[in-house]
Amino acid sequence: MSARTVAAAHARLVVLLLAIALCALPAAVVADDRETLHEFFDRVIEERGELSPQTMASRLIGTEREAQFLGRLDIPSVARERAEYDLARRHREELRRFERDALEGQDALSYDIMKWQLEQQLAGERFMWHDYPVNQLMAVHNMLPGFMTGSHPLRNEEDLDFYLQRLEQFPAVFEGTVEVVKHRVERGIVPPRFAVEKTIRDSRLFIDDPAEENPLVVEPVAEVDRTGTITGERRDGMVAELADAVEAHVFPAYRTLIEYLEALLDDADSDDGVWRLPDGDEYYTWLLRDHTTTDLDADFIHGFGLEEVERIEGEMHEILCDEGYCEGTVGERMMALNQEERFLFEDSDEGRRQIIEAYSEIVEEIEQGLDGWFHDGPVGEVEVRRVPEYREATAFGAFYSRPPADLSRPGVFFANLRSVEEHPRFGLRTLAYHEAIPGHHLQITRMQAMEDVPDFRRSVRLHAHAEGWALYAEKLAWEMGFHEDPYDNLGRLQAELFRAVRLVVDTGMHHLRWTREEGIDYMHRITGMPMSDVVAEIERYLVIPGQATAFKIGMTRLERMRERAAEALGDDFDIRDFHRVVLDNGAMPLEILDGVVDDWVEGETT
Predict the structure, then answer these.
(1) Whole-number pLDDT of residue 21
(2) Are 208 and 234 in contact (CB under 8 A)?
């Protein structure tokens, strides 16, 4: 037996024993009636963390316990997915031991948030197999390398050993992914054909070059060279050591996935919405509540989207006409504008460098202008970086990566530079405000810095609150005076129009049974966005149904909360206080945030 075979067998054995231990965990812990509410919250995080060592490792960075998790990856399996629901069911029952009416302040809010999350998760248990663990956008083939190069620390040689241990587990992760996809396929849940095709394409590209040129080798070596944390013989041999591990473990893992997906192509014969799945309409109803954290139904959201498209087009038309662009639809005029040389960066490495530099300058400028609008700014630094080239084809146009809890790394605003046409100069400000300041970076770092709350409150992920705030922040920057150029304001409105169009196309494809092509045509025609961006967006909505509705619904609810508070408080209304209420209580369902804002207003008026 070869050394590679022995190593692989050992890794599989370790993973098997670990899986057995994890699956046994939920039944092994018995709630104690003497347990306090905060002890319960802490235990919930611990037990969830045992099912996701990657999450636990990120949470414990800089603590004595980090070593328990830094060498482990999340290993998918049918048993693990079932265990998550078993755990949620038990936690819901244990939460009921505490008398809600006896709680107040942050304890009451923590109770309500966790209760909402648990009940919403369990309400969707019948749809637990309805998602697509393999898709072109956010799946193991691109997310795991991103996690390894973006989240795994390399502060010393021990961290490098943990990195290598994680590389050894790639085969188990990919085999587990195939297992959970097969389980879904047997139940009629097959990913869209384009998702399978593009996952195959990107997986092949990832292993196409020699191991020493793979991002899992190149990026950690560059990180160590930048920081100087590993030197001497270990640094000298680092490329060869990592390349050997990638060749032995990573490449075979990708080949396993590719082989399975190639065989799946014959079954992946549809690019339609989730209505085609078993109980697809009911599933979409659950998804809309999950993502918007409201009870708004698909018909209302679709109609609201159409109304907002008409309103925003009207505002854009006025600006365009003022600048001499009066002929054609708004979408046609924006398409033409997007081709004008004065608004485009050079299609070259230098042009892309200038885009990153421009984003960085915009973020630095607005960070100095927060006074009068916020009591406090972001916690920790933010950097602007290019999306790694191996992820560009199918990654989001931009996204934010939060810093670790100990702030040992900055938050990162990633810009996808696959096409310079996706970054016209008139759109730069709005995207920077959304992803960085006063958007996600300010919001998330403030949440991470909350004091006197259970740890789970610092990492709650709820799209309607997070994306609603980021879209609200785009318009807030205009109120703050950072869109003085009419073309910059036009870029802001185009971004809001894009979010209104999302309401229309997401509900159109998943509820009204539009085709993929109808979604592409509508978005391109209305927004005037580049076709490469439009296709990536529509295919995003098809594999992550409902999520795109969270942005505009969240923004609208936040604006209505602010209007309600301003009307009630009159001259005593302070925008800084409103922002503190929305941000410094962390993320929560919008229906709960409504009550928090109303309670604050009542407290200010009595």
Answers:
(1) 42
(2) no
